[in-house]
Structures are given as C-alpha cells and as structure tokens.
Amino acid sequence: MNFQQLKYFAETAKQNSISGAASKLYVSQPALSAAIKELETELDIRLFDRNSKGVTLTNDGLSFLRLALEILEKVDDVKKIYKNSTTLKFQVSSQHYAFVIDAFINFININENKKFNLRVKETKTLNVIEDVYQNKSHLGIICLTESNKNVIVNLLEKKSILFNELITVHPHIFIRRTHPLAQHKKINIRELTNYPAVMYAQNNSDFLSEMFFMEEAIVIEDPDRVIYTHDRGSMNNILSNTNSYTIGTGCLIKDIIPDEITAVPIEHDNGEMVIGWIHSNNNISEEEDLFISLLKQSLDKNFIRDTQK
C-alpha cells in the first residue's frame, strides 16, 4: 500500500467513476484501475462494486475510505509543516546605494510571513564581486563608470560573472540643504575645490587602484581635503553636518536618505553611471527575480528622469 494508491482510491470514490477520477488525476484509466485492484488484493477486500454507470463503494470500501481520508489529511499536514519550516535564505552584496536598501525593505515585507535568513551587505567594490564569485551572495549591485569600466568588466569576465544593467544615470553632488551650493541648478566640478570630498574607502594599496574601484563616478585627483568612510550612516552624518560633498546617483529616498541632504546634478558630459546587478549563474531563482524587480521598482519610483542622459 502506498500514498498514490490511497489518493487514487479516494478520488475514485469521490467521482463514483474510474474514468472521472483518471481525468482529474491526469492518469490513464488502466493505470488507475490497476492501482485499485492491487489495493483490493493487498487488503483482501472489495472496495467498489462496478456497474455500467460507474462504481459505488462497498461497505468495506466505505469503512476504508474513512481511514484513507484520515491518512491523506495527515500527509497534507506534514507537507504544510515542512513547507512552513523551510527557511528562505537570501543575501545581496552592494556598493552603498539607498535604492538597494529600499528594495531590501520591500523584500522583507513581502516575505514577512515566512521563516527567513536574509542578509544585506554594503561593502567596497571588490568585496561585492568576490562575494558573488564565491557564492556568498546571490546577487551583487555595482556601478560602472568611465574610470572603472574597462578594469571591472575585465575582472568580471575572468571570474565568469555576468553584469546586467538596471539604469544609467547622470552623477549628482550630495550636499546638505544649507550648503553654499545647494541652490544651484547644476554644479561645475571646479566649484567643489573649496569643499571637502567624502568618499567610500576601497582600502587599495595605491591611488591608481583606489581610483579604478571607487564608487564615485567622477575622479577628482588628489583633492586637498578628503574624508574616507566605510558605511553609509557615517557618510550621511558627515554630509548632514558639514559643507563636505560626495558624488553619487542623486537618488533621494524618504526615510533612508536624511531630509537634511539634497542632490544637485553635475555639469559633466562624460560621467554617466551604469548601475547593474551581477551574478555567477545563468539560472535566476524566484527570490532573486523578485529582488531584481524590487530594485527596478525603486529606481523607477525615485529617480527623476529629466536629470538623466
């Protein structure tokens, strides 16, 4: 006796017809008839009376149906318990982008009724690539710029990592709303020489390698005053309370980017930022596909299209 035989028997009793049950179960009539016959032989009872109109349960068949339905219900309960005990595991590594956190928050809310182990890691460029390469993260979010494109694309190809574009944006200056340049419609890069630059540290051995993997779209060589930080919280605190600046996407998301910070586009023709997701496998899981969709939704919602080129 097996689960399939019980399932076939119960459906036949429900339909009062072998052909009807076979149609519902997507099996052939001979296969279903054989399964029920084997069950009758094993139990040494007759489960159905056959007639021209179909089948009807015998007294033994009716008694056995009650037991079979109890067993089938218990099996369904076990399946539900196992399904609910499955823990959703998902990790994404990214450069420091508010829209990634926005998407991650929405991902959490969508899966709030599931058991999960979720991780988001904001880190330097090489770590994002390495996390994806070593399968520590399912997806990585990075940016290609004029200064780093050739180096990063070459590195991705060597590691068989695929880059998929999400959006191309024109770089902006992030500054506090009381900054002397905050009211400008656009900012010339030369106007920034009087203010400290805040950059995400890449911890590379020299300026050249630091430049190739920097997150900022435009390279300001050897600024007089530069502040390096490793996390977005420190970055936002510094920008909110000083006249420093950083160069980024221009994406302002309420409750993620402080209200004290604004973004002004840069007067620059060759500084586009190509933001995309990377992965090391051609097969995209359901969870990965959902997260990519949430990234796109956040980008569509929070980027002002007329500032892009």
Automatic annotation (TrEMBL):
Residues 1-58 form the HTH lysR-type domain. Pfam families: HTH_1. One of its GO terms (molecular function) is DNA binding. The keyword Transcription applies. It comes from the Bacteria. GO terms for cellular component: protein-DNA complex. Keywords: DNA-binding, Transcription, Transcription regulation. InterPro entries: LysR_HTH_N, WH-like_DNA-bd_sf, WH_DNA-bd_sf. This is LysR family transcriptional regulator. Belongs to the LysR transcriptional regulatory family.
